[in-house]
Amino acid sequence: MDISVIIVNYNVKDFLVQCLNSVHIALQGIDSEIIIIDNNSTDGSKEYFSDKYSDAHFEWLPHNIGFGAANNIGIQQSKGKYILLLNPDTIVHELTLKHMLEYMNSHIETGIAGCRVLNADGSFQIACRRGFPSPWASFCKLFGLQSLFPSSKLCAGYNLTYKSIYETYEVDALIGAFMFCRREVLEQTHGFDTDFFMYGEDLDLCYRAQLSGWKVTYVHEPTIIHFKGESTKRSSLNAIHVFYSSMEIFTKKHFNNSTLFLFFLRIGIWLRASFASVFYFAEQGLFMIGDILVVIASIMLATYIRFGNPFSFPEYAYPMVFLSSSLIALGCLLFAGAYFEYSGKLKPVLTGYFASFFILSSLTYFFKEYAFSRGVLLMTIGFSLSFSVALRLLWHLYHTLFGNKSDKRIILLGTNAHEHEIVNALQSAESRNTIIVGRVTVKDETSYAHQLPVLGKADALKEIVYNQEADEIIMLDSTIEISDIIKYSSMFAGSKVRIHAVQEYDDIVVSRITNDISGISAAMPIINLQRLRYRLQKRLVDLCISLFFLSLGVPIVFLFSKHPISLLKKLINVYKGKMSIIGLYQIDNSLPVFGKIGITGLVHISKPEILSAQAILNLNEHYIRYYTPTLDIEILIKHLLRIGLSGFKLRS
What are the pLDDT digits (tens) for 224-272? Predict the structure, then answer.
């Protein structure tokens, strides 16, 4: 067998459909097999693919073990001379695998090869070939010198932006989205290092392959389209944290003999992770800053209305009255869910300000010198609530007019038998911001399901798109080949025009494209424990309880616990943030990807010794997805009733 294609799927069944369709075409005439490893997807992948693609082998894992570990399972099952490690959010050119096979057969010194990877908009994906993160390359990447001097060999050694993308050459590392490997290489290196859950495992594999004497090569002629990061968007993982944690694992593993380099690299990683987090949450940060300014302005306005002067309080009250009021309001809004989980609802804002009024009015009983006017406080909360609501309405208006909810102008390329269903989906109530401006013909079609204006022929597509100011192109014609899709993507590289292929009707693909165009997020399970307010509340409770039992409560521990020393050790870990009072149950000494191991928890109170591994996984997942502070209280009460304080002990 020539090629084994291994695809790890996690919550991207819509992308996997079009990936498999393109792979089937690319494998025509090649002795091959397709192996899909599913990392316990929650989007209905198993049900959807149960009666589809009978020539592919599906392996359904009971839980998410990570990208590298899942690929290793596929590698063990594969039979091919060459093994292609492929991401599901890709479209493979019909000649790509033939070109890769020819190249590897004629270049026996190459152990791993990659291809030219394009983004969905046709631009080149610079991460598809890289240099190793040497001290200097890491410094330039982490501190932005590479972005400032992309054509400099000295400063652009990580993403190799100084090299031509239309030449074939040896590189240090390739992207994990497409790695064409010799079986001998994977056998010698034992596949991916499972210490990397996600990110960094491709870099590590290439590094170890080169240490074993193999070349790693970027081949420019074969091409794929990569819809970067789709699995990450649909998971409960903190992608920024996981990425930079993986980089630190790599540096510890391969550069541990350089203490000074590790020190500076960790500083750089911390700075980049901090900047990335700031930019990622920039919108919510602006809301927080805006609400602080709103509270301060409301205090001044209320004071002016009541006393005729915005600064009529005694001098000692400033700036304390501004700081305390704005911080209390900010904290209440945060714990009410007004930030980092904003979905357009105003209820969290109302709840937050009502809680602020209650706390601030209560504090005036304890701090009489700040009890200036209950009327000013009432007006402050009223104005703040009004201004904060107005701020969010303006944000919604902006996104409706100019953002992801703005009107999208669509051009249909060709037609097919399912045009009626596709157009209806695009024009549904949920997708009301889509405007189909017309059709571009591929051949001399005579009849259409929808009578749309004919804008011209496909050979003039570029001019038509720009003249019509189109945002999206939907390719309907089944005669359009993958190579044409890639050609059209490259044609509009650098523009805001996006291309979608719906040559055969499939509810999943049409739904994904409709959501993508209309700006509707894919319906994924909400992970309650990922909400910032819940994490803060949980951490605060952990600190309070652990501090109490590590100080005043030590006699209680020794009086009631059968294993006081073990419990105290656990409480110290809770205080350090390594564990939680109430959390997950540990399985096979492995740490959970998300959440913390608990002293007690949902599994602990359910007789874990008689539960199956799958039942424990299900209970852990239930706790993460449906967590609320009330659930923690129920678990704690049931633990005390069923087991008592003596039950807080280490597992034997």
Answer: 999 875 544 444 444 555 555 666 666 666 666 666 666 766 666 666 6
> Distance (Å, rounded) from C-alpha 32 to C-alpha 35?
10
Residue 642 lies in a domain: yes
Q: Is residue 242 part of a domain?
A: no
Give the span between the Cα atoms of 224 and 96, in whole angstroms. Answer: 8
Residues 196 and 230 in one domain: yes
Rounded distance, CA 628 to CA 632, Å? 7
Same domain, 13 and 61: yes
Give the chain's length: 652
CB atoms within 10 A of CB 564: 18
3-state class of 360 per DSSP?
Answer: helix
Distances (CA, A) of 51 to 8, 15, 16, 27, 466: 19, 17, 15, 21, 42
CA distance 509 to 522: 12
> DSSP strand E in 352-475: where?
408-413, 434-441, 454-457, 472-475
Residue with tokens 């989980």: 341
Residue 123 shares a structural domain with residue 227: yes
Query: Encoding tokens for residue 528?
Result: 């309650």
Rounded CA-CA distance 112/122 in Å is 25
Q: Which of 466, 493, 518 is the last residue of a domain?
A: 518
Judgement on whether residues 39 and 183 belong to the same structural domain of the protein: yes
- From 454, 489, 518, the end of a domain falls on 518
Contact (CB, 8 A) for 164 and 170: no
- Check: CB of residue 100 under 8 Å from CB of residue 33: no
Instruction: Judge if 226 and 271 occupy the same domain.
Output: no
DSSP 598-625: EEEETTGGG-GGGS-HHHHHHHHHHHHH
Q: What is the pLDDT of residues 603-639, one digit of tens each?
A: 988 888 888 888 888 898 889 888 999 999 999 998 8
257 and 290 together in one domain? no
CA distance 373 to 299: 11
β-partners of residue 178 are 86
* Residue with the two structure tokens 């306005």: 301
The pTM score is 0.65
Beta carbons within 10 angstroms of residue 589's beta carbon: 5
Domain with 261 in it: 250-280
Separation between Cα atoms, residue 119 and residue 531, nearest integer Å: 31
Within-domain flag for 147: no
pLDDT digits (tens, 9 = 90+) for 296-346: 999 999 999 999 999 989 888 899 999 999 999 999 999 898 887 755 678
Residues 16 and 91 in one domain: yes
Compute how many other C-beta atoms are within 10 angstroms of the C-beta atom of residue 433: 15
Is 417 a member of any domain?
Answer: yes
Which residues fall within 8 angstroms of residue 499, CB to CB, at 6 or more apart?
120, 122, 472, 473, 475, 485, 488, 489, 492
Considering its fold, how many domains does the chain have in total? 5
Q: Are 231 and 16 in contact (CB under 8 A)?
A: no
> Same domain for 186 and 102?
yes
Q: What is the pLDDT of residues 77-100, one digit of tens each?
A: 999 999 999 999 999 999 999 999
Give the CATH number, domain containing residue 509: 3.40.50.720
Residue 20 belongs to a domain with what CATH number? Answer: 3.90.550.10
